[in-house]
Amino acid sequence: MPDEKLARAIRSRVRRDILHILVSKPKHPVHLIADKLQITESSASKHLKLLHDLGILEFHDEGKERFYSLKIPEIKELLKMYDQVMKKI
């Protein structure tokens, strides 16, 4: 079910951090996301693939680099609400 997949996607701190990065700058290559989060590119790619497969992200290739961006801009509001709720519990 899509709602369960979305819940799984944002339950992960790393995936939320990825989404926050893409909210702040709409187009990011995998290696910069990995660097910012201090994780391997392989790990970043796995998280990005999950978010892409869910339909939250889109990507395009430029040469040897893959750039990710948000496909659903409303994710910004979802993250904002999530963060606000988490501060209260």
In short:
This protein is α+β, with helices and mostly antiparallel strands and 89 residues long. Helix content is 65%, strand content 16%. The protein has helices spanning 2-11, 13-24, 30-37, 41-54, 75-88; strands spanning 28-29, 57-62, 65-70.
Q: Could you walk me through the main structural features you see in this protein, from its secondary elements to its overall organization?
A:
The relative contact order is 0.17. With 89 residues, this protein is of the alpha+beta class. Helix content is 65%, strand content 16%. It has a three-stranded antiparallel beta sheet with strand order 1-3-2. It is globular.
